[in-house]
Amino acid sequence: MTDDTQRVSTARLLDRRDERVAHADTLSGTIGAFVDRVRSGDLGSLPVVVGLLIICTAFQSLNPVFLAPDNLVNLLFDCSTVGVISLGIVCVLMVGEIDLSVGSVSGFSSALIGVLWVNQDWPVAVAVVTALVLGASIGALYAFLFNRLGMPSFVSTLSGLLAWLGLQLYLLGSSGSINLPYGSPLVNFGQMLVMPPIVSYTLAALAGVVVFATGYRMAARRRAAGLSASTLSRLLLKAALVIVVLEFIVYYLNLARGVPWMFGLFVGLCVVMNYALKRTKWGRSMSAVGGNREAARRAGINVRQIHMTAFMLCSTLAAAGGILGAARLASSSQQAGTGDVNLNAIAAAVIGGTSLFGGRGSAYSALLGIIVIQSIASGLTLLDLSSSLRYMITGAVLAVAVIVDSLARRSRVSHGRA
Amino acid sequence: MSTSSDVDHPQEGPGKLVLKLRGISKNFGAVSALADVDLDVHAGEVVALVGDNGAGKSTLVKILAGVHQPTSGTIDFDGEHVVLSDPATALGLGIATVFQDLALCENLDVVANIFLGRELNPVRLDEVSMEIRAWTLLNELSARIPSVREPVASLSGGQRQTVAIARSLLTEPKLILLDEPTAALGVAQTAEVLDLIERVRARGLGVIVISHNMEDVRAVADRIVVLRLGRNNGEFGPDVSNQDLVTAITGADENSVSRRASRRGMQQSREALI
Question: Hey, what CATH topology would domain B4-240 get?
C-alpha cells in the first residue's frame, strides 16, 4: 500500500474533498491534532488529569497511606454523594445557568429521609421517592421563576439556599439529628456494599467491549456512506486501553474491600447522562440553549422546556446526593449539605471541564472533578490538617480551575473554536 | 450543477408565481409602517427589496416570516390564500427566512447547526445521515466549507452565511428571504454569497433579498422593488442606473446623494481644468 493510493482512496470520501483541511489519519497525526487542539484552548479533560497526577504525587510523598487501596475505596464512597450532586450541576451549567442551592436541597432531602423513614415509620422506598419528587419540584419552582418572572437563577437559587436550609433545620427540630438504623439496606448501601470481584471485573471488560462495538458499528456505517471512518486497529487499540486501565483499577481496589456499589451507581448515572447529552435531541438542545439562546429559540427549540428539564434534573440529583449522603453517614443531621458541599459540587463540574459560560461540558467532568476534589480533601485529612486549611486549599483549587476555564475560553475565541 | 451560463443569464422568463402580495398595510399604533404594498415573486427569480431606513423593508420581511401580521391586505402563496399567523406556519408553508444576525450556535458544529431543532432520530441521533445530508446541501451550493465537524466559531462570515442558507434550505422551501446577506462581508465573501444566491435561484426557488448595497442588488437581482415610506415606489430591471435607483429610494432628483455626486464631479472637472 503506497502513500499515493491511500491519498486517492481518501480523496473520494464525501468529507475529505477539501484539501485545505488536515486530517489526522495516522497515529502521529492524531497526536499532532491533539496538541493543536490543546494549544488553541480546547483543553477537554487535560487540566484535570494533570492536576490529579500532581495531587497524587504530592500526597503520596507526604503520606504513603494516600494511594493505599483501603484509602481509595473510602475515597470512592465519599466521591459518590457529592458526585451525584455535581452531575446535576453539569446540567444547569450546560444551559448557562447556575444552581447555588444544591447543598441545601441535599441537606433538606437527607432530613426528609430521617423524618419520614425513622420518625414516621414510612417504608424506606416511599421516603426516598418522596424526597426525589420534592427535589424535582424545587427545580420546577426555579424554572418557573426563571421562565415566567425572569428571575435570574443566581438570585432564585441563592434565596433557595437559605430557604431550604431553614426547612431542613425546622424538620430536624430541636434534636438536631436523627440516626438511621445500622444494618438497614440503605445504610449498608452507603457504607459497606461492594461489588463481588467477578462483577467488577466483568463490568470493566464490558465497558471496553461496548466502546469497541459502538465504535465499530459507527465506522461501518460511515464507511458504507462514503465518509471517513476510524480504522479497525485504532478501535481495537482504544478498547484495549479502556479494558487495561479499568481492569487495573478494579484489581487494585479489590486488594481492599472492592468497588463500592454506590460508586457504581454514580458512574452508571454519568454514563446515562453522557449518552443523553451527546446522542439525543434533548442534549443537543441543551448545548444550543447554552451556546446561543436566541438561535435555539428561532430553530424551534422550546427553550423554556429545556430550562425546566435542566433545573429539575439538577435539584433531583441534588436530592439523590442528599439521600446517599445520609446513607453514608447513617444519620440525618443539621450539618448535612452545609459547609463545602455546595461549592465542592460546583467546583467539581468546573474542574472537570464544564464551562461556567454555558454550552460546553460533559457528564464525565463531574466524575473527574469530584475525584480531584475528594483526593484533596482525603489527602489533607490524612495529613491531619484542620478544616480551615482544607477550605482555603479547596477554594484556591476552584479559583485556579475557573482561571484555566476563562483563559482557555479566551484562547478558543482567538483560535476560532469558541 | 450550476454552470456559469445560467448564472449570467437568468432563465428565459420567470417561473410560476410563488408569492403575491396585494394591498398589504401594517400599522403600529398611529404609525403606518406599510401602506398598500404589492409584491410578486416568481419561482426561479431574485427580487431585491430596497429602500431607505424606515421604508418598511424589515416590516415586510417580518410579515412574510410570520413574525408580524398585516393590518390589511392579502397574501397568496403558491396560488392559495394564506394567513401567516406565526413563524412555524410560514416555515411549514415553505417560506424560509435567513435573518441578518444568522442565529447560529457557535459552540456547535456545522451539522448540528444545520439540523438544529430538526434532528433525525431524537433519542439516538443519526449523525451519519445528518452528515451526509449536510454535505449534499453544501455541495449543491458549491460551498467551500472545510469540515462540517468543526464548530461554527471557526468559520468566516461568508461561510457562516452559507451555513445559514443551507440550514434554511433543509426544509425544502419554495421561497427564501435573505435579510442583508452581504452586510459586514468582505469583497471576496460578498461575491461568494452572490454566487450562492444565484445557485439558490437555479434550484427554482423564489428569492427575496434585502440590501442597502446598490451594486450587489444590481449584480444579482432580476427585479428591483423600491419601497419608500411604506409604499411601492417603482420597480426596475437590473440594468437601471444608479441615479434612477437613488432617486426612487430617496424620492427626489435633488437629494444628498446626487448633490454629493455633482459636487465631486465639479471638483474633478475643476481639477482637470487646472
Answer: Rossmann fold (3.40.50)
Contact, B19 vs B183, CB < 8 A?
no
How far is CA A134 from its chain centroid?
Answer: 22
Cα–Cα distance, A405 to A134 (Å, whole number)? 33
Whether A168 and A336 have beta carbons less than 8 Å apart is answered as yes
Record: contact B155-A416, CB cut-off 8 A: yes
Is A127 inside a domain boundary? Answer: yes
Q: Is the CB of residue A19 less than 8 Å away from at least one CB of chain B?
A: no
In a domain, residue A203? The reply is: no
Pairing relation of β-strands B95-98 and B175-179? parallel
Minimal-distance CA residue of chain B relative to A94: B107
Distance CA A152, CA B272 (A): 66
Residue boundaries of the structural domains of chain B? 4-240
Torsion of CA A353, A355, A358, A360, to 10 degrees: -30
- pLDDT tens digits, chain B, 274 residues: what are they? 444 444 444 444 567 889 999 999 999 888 888 999 999 999 999 999 998 888 888 889 889 988 889 999 999 998 899 998 888 788 889 998 888 777 899 889 999 999 998 888 888 888 899 999 999 888 877 777 888 888 888 888 888 888 988 888 888 899 999 988 888 777 877 888 888 889 889 888 999 999 888 888 888 999 999 998 888 888 888 888 888 888 888 877 666 776 777 777 777 777 776 6
Q: Is there a domain that residue A200 lies in?
A: no
- Residue span of the structural domain in which A164 resides: 45-193+260-414
Q: Is the dihedral of CA A13, A15, A17, A23 positive or negative?
A: negative
Looking at the DSSP bridge assignments, the partners of residue B27 are B32
Number of H helices, E strands in chain A: 17, 2
Spatial separation of the C-alpha atoms in residues B107 and A408, rounded to whole Å: 14
Answering whether pTM is above 0.90, one says: no
Nearest to A279 among B116, B125, B131 (CB): B125
Q: Grid coordinates representing A88?
A: 446535576
Q: Report ipTM (2 d.p.).
A: 0.84
CB nearest A416 (choices: B105, B127, B153): B153
**Nine cell digits for residue A154:** 443566581
Which of B128, B138, B149, B150 to mutate: most A Cβ within 10 Å? Answer: B128
Q: Is residue A21 domain-resident?
A: no
Q: How many domains does chain A have?
A: 1
Q: Could you write out the DSSP letters of every residue in A211-244?
A: HHHHHHHHHHHHHHTT-----HHHHHHHHHHHHH
**What's the CATH code of the domain at A91?**
1.10.3470
pLDDT digits (tens, 9 = 90+) for A391-417: 888 788 878 877 887 887 777 777 766
